[in-house]
Amino acid sequence: MSEKVTETPFQFEYEKQKRKEEMKQQVITFALMIIFTIIAFAMVLSGLDKLFLIPILLVLAAVQVGFQLYYFMHMSHKGHELPSFMFYGGVFAAFLCIIALSALAWW
What we know:
Cytochrome_c_oxidase_bac_sub4, 0% strand, 3 helices
């Protein structure tokens, strides 16, 4: 037999406020990502020196990837600890491989 779980008004208001706050964070993050994209396009169009431009573009791209993972792929939510651990472990391993291969190529 299945029992019907009733939601109290307090629980309903809590969930409503939580969803409202999450939507607010997603809209702010989306706006920031659009602004970062516009900044990147403006910097490329301005004809800045490549040695100055490329590191800044890489930082902007890394920030956007972080926003995508944390807010839009819900890596910050409860219950996503294992996927987060696996993903960040893979990123760390890839980073170590890139560093090692760069050191070998530089040497």
